[in-house]
Design goal:
Oligomer: single chain
GO molecular function, one term: RNA methyltransferase activity
Shape: globular
CATH superfamily of the largest domain: Vaccinia Virus protein VP39
EC number: 2.1.1.-
Structural class: alpha+beta
CATH class of the largest domain: Alpha Beta
Organism: Lactobacillus gigeriorum DSM 23908 = CRBIP 24.85
Pfam family, one: Methyltranf_PUA
Largest sheet: 10 strands, mixed
Strand content: 15-25%
Number of strands: 22
Number of helices: 15
Family: Belongs to the class I-like SAM-binding methyltransferase superfamily. RsmB/NOP family.
Helix content: 25-40%
Length: 465
């Protein structure tokens, strides 16, 4: 049973009243609601999990628990995520071709949805300040088959220097006091205090001030937290409206079951538009605690010079330094040209660069990223070894978005588990050289068929079970 701090109970009894606060406190002692999303980038969206309980207002999202060792998860077909946490990236309403920033991105639940919405067009910058958590962010974006993302490991100040007025949409899922996670994390309960709430508010303002420097005139700021605290929710939004003249957007919802709205009376300004913000309370049985606001910048877009897609393409093609030699192109071609390549890889020979033998197609000109700590830029095709090329795991995930013929299907779970452990398998197959490896029709890795019918293992060591 969760032992709630008395200060917390007194606060929410005052804000919600006796009856509703008791509902909240009781709900915090119930099991969390688990859910998952299906990756709409994949050619095969058929999965084995139960889809009888869809989450209202969301597409391809269902209540249910998934197994992190199943081929659906390993191959990037599903993502486990709290139902309430699915709403910010969905209601951001990102369109293909936009430039999008997820400023506090790890572990990647919201980021993968943003990348999915871009559908391979435009740019996604996913940033995480924690050097530990950014690894999980990269892995999840890789698994999801997203090839137009830059993963960075910086604070908001460093990013703002590189990307002034650059992004069409910025999502700030801000670090917060975590009240909405109380029934999932005992640490969150033990760490809570009203002083910590105010510390978080100050940090949120600091992050948002840098985020606003990166937002294009006319752009969209999506602000979310996993806390109930008005100091970190409505009061932050009221501060944004006052400081930057942003307009709170009314969010389209066909079904409001389990969803509440913001409280203007919990702020000094008492802005009526705060009723357009969304609140997710655990007692409403949709998911965990979450707050969400979408705000529109009211400056005119013509204040910023837009770069046409053709000019962007020419800029990427003119990077120059690090371009592949004819010999390197030949090595890469022998491996990847036998696969069904997505449209964005049709010009890989002119776009690909070599950085310390890592062959990649940048999502953004590396010169533009100078001064930032870059974890990944675009799509890594693979690694150049001595007189040969080995395809990378990210490329396998991207290729799995399309039907493929150069694929070895593992026949049973024993083979699948052995491959996840890093073992070489004896396989009866007519294919030779590099192949995609799948189980239950879900591609999850590269392998290499040898002349003696062995499938050499290329599943990354860091991911092996």
């Amino acid at each position: 049973m969760v032992k709630l701090p008395e200060e917390f109970k007194n606060k929410y009894t005052h804000l919600l009243g006796q009856e509703e606060s008791e509902r909240l406190f009781s709900a915090l002692n119930l099991p969390e609601r688990k859910a998952y999303r299906i990756n709409q980038l994949k050619i095969d969206t058929n999965i084995s999990y139960d889809q009888s309980k869809p989450i209202p207002n969301l597409t391809a999202s269902y209540y249910g628990e998934i197994d992190g060792t199943d081929p659906e998860w390993v191959g990037g077909s599903v993502y486990s995520q709290d139902p309430s946490a699915m709403f910010p990236a969905t209601l951001a309403n990102v369109q293909p071709g936009e430039k999008v920033l997820d400023l506090c991105a790890a572990p990647g639940g919201k980021t993968t949805k943003l990348g999915e919405s871009l559908a391979g067009k435009g740019l996604l910058v996913a940033n995480e300040i924690s050097a530990t958590r950014v690894k999980a962010l990269r892995e999840n974006l890789e698994r999801w088959g997203i090839d137009n993302a830059v993963v960075t490991n910086n604070d908001s100040f460093a990013l703002a220097k590189v990307f002034p007025e650059f992004f069409d949409t910025i999502l700030v899922d801000a670090p917060c006091s975590g009240e909405g996670m109380f029934r999932k994390s005992e640490d969150a309960v033990n760490y809570w205090s009203q002083d910590y709430v105010m510390t978080c508010q100050a940090r949120q303002k600091e992050i948002l001030q840098e985020a606003m420097k990166m937002l294009k005139p006319g752009g969209k700021l999506v602000y979310s937290t996993c806390t109930f605290s008005p100091e970190e929710d409505e009061q932050i939004v009221a501060w944004l409206v006052a400081k930057y003249n942003l307009q709170i957007q009314k969010l389209p919802l066909e079904n409001t079951t389990g969803i509440s709205y913001g409280h203007p009376e919990w702020t000094e300004q008492k802005l009526s538009d705060l009723q357009n913000t969304l609140r997710f309370w655990p007692q409403n049985n949709l998911g965990e605690g979450q707050f969400l606001a979408v705000l529109k910048d009211q400056r005119k877009q013509e204040d910023t010079v837009l770069v046409s897609p053709k000019k962007q393409q020419r800029k990427r093609n003119n990077v120059g330094k690090g371009k592949l030699s004819k010999e390197e192109i030949d090595y890469v071609s022998k491996v990847i040209e036998k696969f069904n390549l997505p449209e964005q890889l049709s010009s890989w020979k002119t776009l690909a660069l070599n950085s310390n033998d890592h062959i990649f197609i940048p999502a953004l000109d590396p010169k533009r990223l100078k001064g930032l700590k870059i974890i990944n830029n675009g799509l890594e095709l693979g690694i150049m070894k001595k007189r040969r090329f080995e395809p990378g795991h990210q490329l396998a995930a991207v290729l799995s978005n399309l039907p493929q013929t150069e694929t070895v299907e593992l026949i049973d779970k024993k083979q699948y588990d052995s491959y996840l452990h890093g073992e070489t398998l004896q396989i009866s197959n007519k294919l030779n050289g590099f192949v995609l490896v799948s189980f239950q029709q879900k591609i999850f890795s590269f392998g290499k068929m040898t002349g003696n019918k062995q499938l050499k293992n290329f599943y990354p060591k860091g991911l092996r079970k």
